[in-house]
Amino acid sequence: MSLSPLRKQAKAKIIRVGILGCGAIGSRIAKSIKTQCDDQAVVTALFDINPAKAQHLQKNIPYKNSVKTSYPKLLESCDLVVEAVNAADTYQLVRSALLAKKDVLVMSVGKFIEGESIFKLAQKQGVRLLIPSGAIAGIDAIKAASLQRIDRIILTTRKPIYGFVDNAYIKEKRVNLSKIKKETILFDGNVREAVKCFPQNINVAATIALASDAKDKLRIRIVTSPEFKVNSHEIEVAGEFGRLVTKTENVVCPDNPKTSYLAVLSAVRTLKEYFQGVKIGT
Ligand SMILES: NC(=O)c1ccc[n+]([C@@H]2O[C@H](COP(=O)([O-])OP(=O)(O)OC[C@H]3O[C@@H](n4cnc5c(N)ncnc54)[C@H](O)[C@@H]3O)[C@@H](O)[C@H]2O)c1
After folding, report:
1. Ligand 1 atom 3: the closest Cα is on which residue?
2. Is 26 in the pocket of ligand 1 (CB under 6 A)?
3. Would you say 253 and 260 are in contact if contact means Cβ atoms under 8 Å apart?
4. Is the CB of 259 under 6 A from ligand 1?
5. CA-CA distance, 161 to 123, in Å (whole number)?
6. Residue 207 CA: which ligand 1 atom is closest?
7. pLDDT band at 9 (very low <50, low <70, confident <90, very high)
8. Residue 255 has what pLDDT?
9. Which of these, 84, 126, 127, 72, lies nearest to 109 by C-alpha position?
10. How far is the CA of 24 from the centre of ligand 1 (A)?
11. 225 CB less than 6 Å from ligand 1?
12. Nearest C-alpha to atom 2 of ligand 1 is from which residue?
């Protein structure tokens, strides 16, 4: 069927997506581009510091010859970068993408807790930095509420004991996880400390901090118990707008028991709205 000249003009550009980090989240997002965003986007580039991960993902998506041998080659081959790495230099990787005038979806939000300079760079370069809400509810309301006075924000993250097994802070504090028999607070403090002590667990805290612009009012509690079977995040905010309480009880991502499934779904939804040029909520 041929399109009328007007329809042809209105036909949206197909966005070329580059996946940086082909682990659990990068792989899920790459597969979802086909199932959820087929008319709007294609995966044109995959890069992982472990080439076997990129090659494995290549076999599971319908886009041919996407594996790139370096990050600069990925940047040459896409319009939008999906950052899904667990790297020490994530900040620099995202910075390079912005300098190359690529839009970026950021998953490792904890690395951007002091994000002002990277936000300024995105603005200067005329590109977009997308941060999905992740495994929590209420980011839309927190963004709106933070235009006026915020009195307090408390995030209580509850996770099963196995979610902390490899955590360096827990080891350093000599917490014997196998001896925990009842609900136990592992951490109670500010967001900067929380992100340092629980880098793999607490991207949600960083997302709230960025959305609220009220880092200093944000208190993070991390709790475990043998009774906990799922990861849950409860948020309480009070301020000039009133008070809100939200709670998510998350099932884990089928590919990675350390990641909540909702975090991946929220990234895919963010991309879908970006491709469609529609933004629902605040
Ligand atoms: N925002 C959220 O709600 C949320 C939720 C869960 C996880 N995360 C974050 O998303 C990121 C990815 O999580 P995941 O579960 O997919 O992790 P993963 O370990 O399954 O995958 C990460 C991949 O990145 C690759 N990698 C590491 N350094 C790299 C580099 N310099 N260049 C290219 N590839 C590199 C690894 O080889 C691996 O394949 C982590 O930082 C995690 O903390 C965010």
Report:
1. 134
2. yes
3. yes
4. yes
5. 41
6. 1
7. very low
8. 74
9. 84
10. 7
11. no
12. 134
Q: How far is the CA of 28 from the centre of ligand 1 (A)?
A: 12
Residue 74 CB–ligand 1 contact under 6 Å: no
Helices (H) then strands (E): counts for the chain:
11, 12
178 to each of 161, 164, 174, 184, how far by Cα in Å? 8, 11, 12, 12
pLDDT value at 12 more than 90: no
Catalytically active residues, by annotation: 233
Task: Please tell me the pTM assigned to this model.
Answer: 0.92
Q: Mean of the per-residue pLDDT values for the chain?
A: 92
Which secondary structure element, helix H or strand E, spans residue 26, and what is its range? helix 24-37
Residue 114 has pLDDT above 90, yes or no: no
Distance (angstroms) between ligand 1 centre and the Cα of 85 equals: 3
Give the pLDDT mean for 253-276: 90
**Residue of 56, 86, 113 to test ligand 1 pocket, by largest number of atoms within 8 Å of CB:** 86
Whether 267 is in the pocket of ligand 1, judged by its Cβ within 6 Å, is no
Element (H, E) at 83: strand 80-83
> What is the pLDDT averaged over residues 118-129?
97
205 with 224: CB under 8 angstroms? no
How confident is residue 254, by pLDDT bands cut at 50, 70 and 90? confident
> Could you read off the pLDDT of 201-228 as tens digits, one per residue?
678 999 999 999 888 999 999 999 999 9
Tell me the residue length of the chain. Answer: 282
Q: Is the pLDDT of residue 2 over 50?
A: no
Please give the Cα distance from 97 to 112 (Å, whole number): 15
Distance from the alpha carbon of residue 156 to the mean position of ligand 1, in angstroms: 23
- Domains, the chain, ranges and CATH? 5-131+262-276 (3.40.50.720), 139-250 (3.30.360.10)
Tokens of 265: 């779904």
227 three-state secondary structure = coil
pLDDT of residue 162: 87
